[in-house]
Amino acid sequence: MSDLRKDPVTGRWVIIAPDRAKRPVHHEPVFRLASDRLDPFAEGNEGLTPPEILAFRSSDSAPNGPGWRVRVVPNKFPALRTDEELKKRGVGLYDTMTGVGAHEVVIECPHYEESLARLPVDNVREVLGAYKDRLLDLKRDVRLVHALIFKNKGALAGASLEHAHSQLIVTSVVPISVWEEMTGALEFYNYRGRCVYQDMLDQELDSRERVVLETADYAAVCPFASRFPFETWIIPKHHASHYETSSDAQIASLARVLKTTLSKLELALDDPPYNYVLHTAPFDTPELPHYRWHLEVFPRLTRVAGFEWGSGFYINPVPPEEAAEFLRNVDVPQNYGRAAADEPAVKVRKAG
User: Fold this and answer.
1) Is the Cβ–Cβ distance between 228 and 240 less than 8 Å?
2) Residue 17: what are its φ and ψ, rounded to 5°?
3) Which residues belong to any copy of the Galactose-1-phosphate uridyl transferase C-terminal domain (predicted)?
4) pLDDT exceeding 70 applies to what percent of the chain?
5) How far is the C-alpha of 9 from the C-alpha of 78, rounded, in Å?
6) pLDDT tens profile 25-74
């Protein structure tokens, strides 16, 4: 039996329709790069990318050369640029502005590896630390308002290169999805005097139906109104509206939760393509009592088609309670993925 569910933050409705899972589906082949294709993100190929903005590298290595573990570079084909002057104008009833912003790539490891989950947890911690460092740096530009951090894994999720990487796009306006979250969270707070994300956590941790895993600092849950099969959110237990305010200890804890969550999804679903997005409050706002940053993971197991585009409804054939139970029961081997490198990395910024 189908079930309509309402997201308590945005007010968005979804349809949970288990019978849809029984329909015949033609599965597309998984596209992979040829093994002999040049990897521009691999160590030794630093000249194939723009000069690095930030890197975690060994103490005896030089910028834009080998010896790094995580490296941040400008996107070679950016959607937005910082070297533009912000100009706004109206064209009749339409509004337009110059494409001011930043578009950066976080290269997550020096060797060829598709999966962030198969990297050592210290490597994941450095990736998450790079996110924080870049947000703190970019928010100093008063033209920039909001940063969206996202990862596309696999061709079906939008990745053009398989080497593990994520991206950061900073805009001069707040994206509509984040605006809807913030507006819905504020309405909830004004009406009830509480943060909706804390209420969600309290209810999920009390019922345990949709909890994938829990630590002292975070909970990973399949949300009540999941748009996609096995959609999983990682929500901090401590209140913080801005990701960049996270402490080093909180980022280290998040690295373990993210690695475990992605590992469970990979093992349970045969290494699916997926996207994740990190939603955080705009740069120009103070700490917000009604909003909480969080990370949303979407395995790409179904397609968004005409009904979804036309109605705004999503159809999810896997109830989140079943998805969470399935993921809870997935055991991740202790040494899943690569072993940690022996030599610690240091952080190096671009000169100037």
Assistant:
1) no
2) -130, 85
3) 192-305
4) 91
5) 32
6) 444 555 554 445 789 999 999 999 999 999 999 999 999 999 999 999 99
Length of the chain: 352
Tell me the CA end-to-end span of the chain in Å, nearest whole number: 61
C-alpha to C-alpha distance for 157 and 325, rounded to whole angstroms = 25
How crowded is the C-beta side of 66, counted as CA atoms within 13 Å?
Answer: 5
Say what the pLDDT of residue 259 is: 97
Enter the tokens of residue 141: 């530009």
Q: Mean pLDDT across the chain, nearest whole number?
A: 89
Query: What's the distance, CA 209 to chain centroid?
Result: 24
What residues are paired with 81 via a beta bridge? 100
Token reading at 75: 């996107």
**Per-residue pLDDT, 27:** 47
Dihedral (Cα; 311, 312, 313, 314), 10-degree rounding = 130
Are 266 and 305 within 8 A, CB to CB? no
Q: Within 13 Å and on the Cβ side, how many CA atoms surround 238? A: 15
- Give catalytic residue positions: 165
The count of other CB atoms within 10 Å of the CB of residue 321 is 15
The pLDDT value recorded for residue 241 is 98
3-state SS assignment for residue 180 = helix
Whole-angstrom CA distances from 235 to 147, 238, 294, 306 are 18, 9, 5, 31
75, 139 contact by CB (below 8 A): no
What string of H, E and C letters represents the secondary structure of 105-159? EEECCCCCCCCHHHCCHHHHHHHHHHHHHHHHHHCCCCCCCEEEEEEEECHHHCC
Q: Domain 3-23+40-82+95-335, what architecture?
A: 2-Layer Sandwich (3.30)
Which is it for strands 314-316 and 13-16: parallel, antiparallel or unpaired? Answer: parallel
On the 0-12 / 13-18 / 19+ scale of CB atoms within 10 A, 231 is buried
Phi/psi for 289 (5° steps) reads -70, -15
Query: Torsions phi, psi of 55, nearest 5?
Result: -150, 145
pTM for the model: 0.90
Query: pLDDT at residue 257 above 50?
Result: yes
State the Cα–Cα distance between residues 259 and 172, nearest whole angstrom: 31
